[in-house]
Amino acid sequence: MNRLKSMIGYTWAILAVLIAPATFLGHGALSRTLADVTGVTVHPRYSGGEVVSRIDHGPYSTSIHRPVFDALVGKSKEGFVQMTWAPASALPEWIEEPIDYNRDGRVDFTVALNTGSGEVWLVKSHPTVVAPVKSYRLSDGWAVRVRLIRRP
Predict the structure, then answer these.
(1) Which of 86, 87, 83, 88 minimizes the C-alpha distance to 64?
(2) Where do the domains of the chain lie?
(3) Are 81 and 145 in contact (CB under 8 A)?
(4) Cys bridge to 120: 19, 102, 112, 132, which one at CB 3.0-4.6 A?
(5) How many CA atoms lie within 13 A of 30 on its CB side?
(6) Phi, psi for 40 (deg, rounded to 5)
(7) How confident is the model at residue 27 (pLDDT cuts 50, 70, 90)?
(8) What's the first-to-final CA gap in the chain, in angstroms?
(9) Confidence of residue 115 (pLDDT cuts 50, 70, 90)
(10) What is the rounded CA–CA span in Å between residue 9 and residue 7?
(11) Res 66: pLDDT
(12) For the stretch 4-21, what's the b/e string if a residue is b when 16 or more beta carbons lie within 10 angstroms of its beta carbon?
């Protein structure tokens, strides 16, 4: 009898290990709810950081995210700042925009984006600005990350 109970228990444990991930993969709402309840968030290196300011251009808007220097432990010497433009349907062929990422009232760089090809140009006017990292086509817009170095 004890052997039968053990076999049933092990079988149930193996099935639970297989069923649990399949349940979360198949039910997006359930996994999102679980993440919200537990406070789990996407790391800023992937999400671009929180939006700190928005510039309204009428049919489209620019979102400037906070500078991201987050590392596994502490802060990294290199980071980035991300800008997003949306919605994609309202974006002009060329976007050229002065950006004040540290919100000190002075332009830190000017970024130009070709929304057709994704090419990026950067004019630096602050010593912490290094270079454009990459442009990304989003589901409803474009994003550009600009590499920064952190001042001690």
Answers:
(1) 83
(2) 2-38, 46-149
(3) yes
(4) 132
(5) 8
(6) -70, 135
(7) low
(8) 68
(9) very high
(10) 5
(11) 95
(12) eeeeeeeeeeeeeeeeee
pLDDT above 70 coverage of the chain, percent: 92
* Burial class for 107, CB neighbours closer than 10 Å (0-12, 13-18, 19+): middle
Dihedral pair phi/psi, residue 51, rounded to 5°: -75, 125
Compute the CA torsion angle 8, 18, 38, 50 (nearest 10 deg): 170
Of the pLDDT bands very low, low, confident and very high (cuts 50, 70, 90), residue 140 is: very high
List Cβ neighbours of 8 (8 Å cut-off, separation of 6 or more).
Answer: none
Identify the band that residue 34 occupies on the pLDDT scale cut at 50, 70 and 90.
low
pLDDT surpassing 80 at residue 25: no
Provide the b/e sequence for 88-105 (b: ≥16 CB within 10 Å).
Answer: eeebeeebebebebeeee
CA-to-CA dists, residue 78 to 70, 100, 116, 119, 133, angstroms: 9, 18, 29, 23, 12
> Would you state the pLDDT for residue 90?
94
